[in-house]
Write a structure and sequence with these properties.
The chain is α+β, with helices and mostly antiparallel strands. The chain contains 38 helices and 30 strands. The longest helix has about 35 residues.
Length: about 1050
């Protein structure tokens, strides 16, 4: 069949070239459709259930809401784990499903369970599911702010409420319908509210209660329809509008009539445009702003959606009021473009170097260009495969592509065709006729096609372990393995069809087998070295064995990490203040912090989210802020050579001088990555499980103290579970019973007066705003004034002095005790059990050795109470999981490779000989990592996997040639020397093109280069050692393995 394909390709060469052209055209078309991203989205399938419960303490939110919802989720199909968080006024349950679960199926299941549990939840509490987005779905952020000196039409300045109204009713409606956008989240500013603020003294004077005000507002703010009437053949709809539209209309609402005198709202209360009791705020460059965030629909491409939003925001700005601007502050496209620029640069430079090697070593520019044409053609083949399989072009998917590897098969075939054409012309002493040329090309291709085929299968086999990875590591590295295998498959198809057809068609005229100076020099240097090692076989093998043993020893001493951190070019700063810090105080502290950061000339802008946004996808208390420090391009820095790590250290030193703050430094996407992977934002998390919050906190603090003493630990902190100041109003049941009051009557007064209660809505066209009853701010914040709040006694009851029944009141302070005490700040649960987390980042040290030391010290130094236990989380979990799986699968795939080699040669000896190239190659890879001080990682592991394929290929080429010579009757010693010298050029070309193809990747310093660097370093170092050892050790091993032939002769 193989011979049939080769003959068809050569004899139907124009048809083959036309088919290749068609494949290229399809690839070029698919290139327009190829999704582009920075990194693969590693998010697990998760659904958030957010429940707002105004006024509920963390303990109450856990008991009444979190626990019932969490319990209802148990037993869902494909459920992996549940995590929950209970904070003041909020319950969030995160339900995580197994990978591959359809998100819409998962949401449907959860919706059914939530409906079942809804009846058991407190009245008025409505659970809702978070947006259909991934954890990396926050792809675009903008601020709504006034320009310098801008004024409204009435001459006043724009307030935070005005900006929030513009965001909610002008910006948001235009952006939320963009394809790929699932939700728009807003933080900052104030929701506009129509507020009725009763004066308690006036309520007492008129004999009214808060309830009377609420009822009057509700009964005087509604439209009613009364069907229709028919008159003179026409139909008239009957309606009685009664909605209020202005502040004056609200003021004129009658609450009650006393002796024919109406008591209006304005008589007992102040009516004004008020502000909500907000849970979050946003700042930028030291001033308060309104911040909007786009959530991308799960499965969409971040770059495409970001570009759509960016284009739409330009149009939105035209519709904003004069002087107000919506300004982009974070756009994922920037990072994607920078990352793809790095990858493109690496690939382009690699391709140029590969072509240069081909031109230099092949000695025939036509053949070199034809071989080099395999690079763009296989890339176009790959692009079609990526589009069809919905794999995006990103740092990981294109990170392992080496054009040197791709053209290896074509190089072997082209080199052998040139050599055979030159030999045949020399033998016949004339130019070859067309038929003769075709036959020589056919024979030359057939002769070396088996090594090419086997090498592709070997590289495909060594990638099998990557396909077995699951979870986060699987999502991260599957695209990488897929692109390598598909590109090699395309190159193989082209090598057996396009290359022989093109050589037969275009390599005409005189073909000389001449070597350039580089090859002559290499041959002159290699021959004496080969003779030397063949004379000293045992010392040569012993030296190789020692090198392998040394590299194995070095590898065990090297550090380990999951994936090198992608340098996103920006800094994310997690700022923590003392629990209980008010939002207004946090904003002031934030402005001070931003002023300090903005003073650095390298900083372009700094913006922050404080507390919880409108949609609580990332609930934070007011004392916590996520800061985004956006840096200028390095070229605009005063010192462009300054490293980002040095700048981050300088910023950290500067901000630590500001009192009352604690910081954690990371990057925008990295912060989310860590959170998605393990539920925490740090590299390492020690989780303590148990029941009692005080005991959990005590154990957590002991662990934190221990962690801080470990070298490499940074940003060590214990989850803030306590310290939230609470004003608790304890209602005295015995006293209220004497007044004929119920607990609910007293609670309603407290709820309305302090928290506020909605009495309806006010409509302004499409816009709608809450109508709220709440005490004036001056009274709300005064505890003594709260104690004087009037609680209306029931009619028919008796006043305290024993008088007749009338509108009587009792002061709240008479029937309740006010207590200020710290309470729980938040309660976290995981799989139905309370837990506290101690987190740490790792700096200046590898993750693997750090975790090992942490586990050892914690086990020795921490004693937990009965019924309490520990678990470890963070990015290292993926490293451990991947390592466990690879320990099983890698040996299996190596066994498969050995089996393939055995089937190829029909000899276990020769298979073992070729296979010996793998450990010899690994020595160089380990040495290269050690020299560059790069820890072992999954990226480096994939480099070793790629390396194994190249090592086997060079061994195959040499052993195949020696076997062919021996089959022709050449003596073993002569066959070894002649075979290795004959295959010196292709082996050097394979090594050079493969290593030079990765060279730009190893040396690049652009965005994302640090993720590719370990892989490239391993391959280059390994290929260098593998080539040298293959050319010197393999002939010696061959001679030793075939000693029996010598003895037999």
């Amino acid at each position: 069949m193989l011979e049939g394909i080769l003959r068809f390709a050569i004899h139907q060469r124009w048809l083959v070239l036309l088919a290749v052209l068609g494949m290229g055209a399809l690839g070029a078309y698919n290139y327009q459709r190829l999704p582009i991203d920075a990194v693969p989205d590693i998010t697990n399938v998760q659904v958030q259930i957010n429940t707002e419960a105004p006024g509920y303490s963390p303990l109450e939110a856990e008991q009444r809401i979190t626990f019932p919802i969490e319990t209802a989720m148990a037993g869902l199909p494909h459920l992996r784990e549940t995590r929950s968080l209970s904070r003041y006024g909020l319950s969030q349950v995160t339900v995580i499903f197994e990978d591959g679960t359809d998100i819409y199926f998962a949401r449907q299941l959860i919706n059914e369970r939530v409906q079942e549990v809804r009846e058991t939840l407190p009245t008025g509490v409505e659970p809702s599911m978070g947006p259909i987005a991934t954890g990396l779905g926050e792809i675009f952020m903008w601020t709504v702010e006034p320009r310098e000196g801008a004024r409204k039409a009435d001459g006043t300045e724009y307030t935070s409420t005005d900006l929030r109204t513009i965001q909610d009713w002008i910006v948001r409606p235009q952006l939320r319908n963009i394809p790929g956008v699932t939700e728009i989240n807003t933080i900052g500013g104030y929701l506009k509210q129509f507020q009725v603020a009763p004066d308690p003294a006036k309520l007492i004077a008129y004999g009214l209660s808060f309830h009377d005000v609420l009822e009057a507002l509700a009964r005087n703010n509604a439209n009613v329809g009364a069907g229709y009437i028919e008159k003179s053949g026409e139909q008239y709809l009957v309606r009685a509008p009664g909605q209020v539209a202005t502040l004056d209309e609200i003021r004129d609402i009658v609450i009650r009539t006393e002796r024919d005198v109406p008591i209006r709202v304005k008589d007992v209360a102040e009516v004004l445009l008020g502000k909500e009791l907000r849970t979050g705020a946003a700042t930028e460059n030291g001033k308060e702003v309104v911040l909007g965030t786009v959530f991308m629909l799960m499965g969409e491409n971040s770059r495409t959606v970001s570009q759509r939003v960016g284009a739409k925001l330009v149009q939105v700005n035209r519709s904003l009021p004069q002087g107000v601007v919506a300004k982009t502050v974070y756009d994922r496209t920037t990072l994607v473009d920078k990352t793809i620029a790095t990858v493109s640069k690496n690939l382009l430079e690699g391709a140029v170097l590969v072509v240069a090697v081909l031109l230099a070593l092949l000695g025939n520019w036509r053949a070199a260009l034809l071989t080099a044409a395999v690079i763009p053609l296989s890339m176009l083949f790959l692009i079609t495969g990526m589009v069809e399989n919905k794999v995006s072009a990103n740092l990981m998917s294109l990170g392992a592509l080496d054009f040197g590897l791709i053209v290896d098969g074509a190089v072997i075939i082209a080199e052998n065709c040139l050599r055979r054409l030159a030999l045949e012309q020399h033998r016949l002493a004339r130019l070859l006729e067309r038929g003769e040329r075709f036959e020589v090309v056919f024979e030359a291709t057939r002769e070396v096609f088996k090594p090419s085929l086997v090498s592709v299968i070997v590289v495909a086999l060594v990638n099998i372990p990557i396909f077995t990875l699951t979870g986060v590591e699987g999502k991260m590295f599957h695209p990488m393995a897929f692109t390598v295998v598909v590109a090699l498959l395309g190159a193989l198809i082209l090598s057996v069809t396009f290359v022989p057809a093109a050589i037969a068609l275009f390599v005409t005229g005189r073909v000389e087998e001449r070597e350039n100076r580089a090859m002559q020099w290499a041959r002159r240097a290699y021959r004496p070295a080969l003779d030397l090692v063949l004379r000293n076989r045992i010392p040569t093998v012993a030296a190789a064995g020692v090198m392998v043993a040394l590299s194995a020893l070095v590898a065990t001493r090297m550090g380990a990490e999951f994936v090198p951190s992608l340098d996103e070019g920006d800094i994310a700063l997690h700022a923590l203040r003392i629990p209980g810090t008010s939002l207004s105080q946090a904003i002031e502290m934030q402005k001070q912090l931003e002023g300090r950061i903005k003073a650095f000339p390298e900083v372009d802008k700094v913006f922050a989210k404080i507390g919880t946004a409108e949609i609580a996808t990332d609930p934070m208390p007011p004392n916590v802020a996520d800061n985004f420090v956006m840096l200028k391009p390095a070229a605009e820095w005063p010192d462009p050579s300054r490293s980002k790590a040095d700048l981050a250290r300088a910023i950290q030193e500067a901000v630590e001088k500001i009192p009352g703050n604690n910081y954690e430094f990371t990057q925008p996407i990295q912060m989310r990555f860590n959170e998605l992977i393990s539920g925490v934002r740090s590299d390492v998390a020690v989780k303590v499980f148990g029941d009692d919050l005080d005991r959990l906190l005590k154990s957590g603090e002991e662990i934190a103290e221990l962690l801080e003493r470990i070298p490499g630990a940074a940003d060590v902190k214990v989850e803030q579970v306590t310290g939230l100041p609470m004003l608790t109003v304890h209602i005295d049941r015995s006293r209220i019973s004497r007044y004929g009051l119920n607990v609910a009557d007293v609670q309603e007064v407290i709820e309305v007066a302090v928290g506020g209660k909605q009495a309806g809505q006010v409509f302004e066209g499409d816009r709608r705003f809450d109508l709220l009853v709440r005490l004036p701010e001056r009274l709300r914040e005064d505890v003594e004034a709260m104690k004087r709040l009037p609680v209306l006694l029931p009619l028919g009851g008796r006043a305290a002095d024993g008088g007749e029944a009338r509108a009587s009141y009792v002061a709240l302070g008479e029937i309740a005790r006010f207590e200020v005490a710290p309470g729980p700040n938040q309660i976290s649960r995981e799989n139905g059990k309370r837990r506290i987390v101690v987190t740490a980042n790792v700096r200046g040290r590898d993750l693997g050795s750090f975790i090992a030391e942490v586990q050892e010290r914690v086990q020795a130094g921490i004693q937990l109470p009965e019924g309490y236990w520990l678990s470890y989380g963070g990015t290292f979990e993926q490293l451990a999981s991947a390592a466990r799986r690879l320990q099983v699968v890698v040996p299996l795939s190596l066994a498969l490779i050995f089996g393939l080699l055995f089937m190829t040669f029909g000899s276990a000896r020769d298979a073992a000989l070729v296979f010996s190239g793998v450990p010899l190659a690994l020595t160089g890879g380990v040495a290269a990592l050690w020299i560059r001080d790069i820890p072992l990682s999954i990226s480096a592991g994939i480099g070793f996997i790629t390396l194994s394929g190249v090592a086997v290929l060079t061994g195959l080429v040499i052993v195949s040639c020696i076997r062919d010579l021996r089959a022709q009757g050449t003596a073993i010693d002569e066959a070894i020397v002649e075979g290795t010298l004959t295959r010196l050029r292709p082996v050097l070309m394979i090594a050079l093109v493969a290593s030079l193809g990765f060279l730009p990747m190893a040396l690049n310093v652009g965005t994302g280069a640090e993720v590719q660097r370990p892989l490239a370093t391993v391959v280059i170092g390994g290929i260098l050692s593998s080539t040298i050892l293959t050319l010197l050790v393999l002939p010696v091993l061959y001679r030793l393995f075939h000693r029996d032939n010598e003895l037999a002769s």
